[in-house]
Amino acid sequence: QVQLVESGGGLVQPGGSLRLSCAASGFTLDYYAIGWFRQAPGKEREGVSCISSSDGSTYYADSVKGRFTISRDNAKNTVYLQMNSLKPEDTAVYYCAAGMIKSPAPGGTMAGPSSYDYWGQGTQVTVSS
User: Fold this and answer.
1) Cα(50)–Cα(97) distance, rounded to whole angstroms?
2) pLDDT tens for residues 63-84?
3) CA distance 1 to 25
4) CA 31 → CA 72, 81, 92, 126, distances in Å?
């Protein structure tokens, strides 16, 4: 059974850190670009970061650049999102997604949600004092 499972979310104070994990089962992540998306209540799902399947190139939304780091460990079939200096506006459900696509694209943009084949169930991140 093909599955993506996110973990690592929780409640953290502003300025704190969390590391999200996205573990795949039933397929190997080696050939998939992985994206992290988030959705806050009443807002559209937005792309946060992605990492390519081939050369490890990455993309970050302007809102998280310099604070978040995406990485992949193909041996563990897992992708991570290290989130530092968290802000209340980072509060959202975070989803990982896998797609046999080129993301980031050559122009440096991140593929939209409809381009991805598999999705996790999401993990809640709440940044509050």
Assistant:
1) 9
2) 999 999 999 998 999 999 999 9
3) 7
4) 12, 19, 28, 32
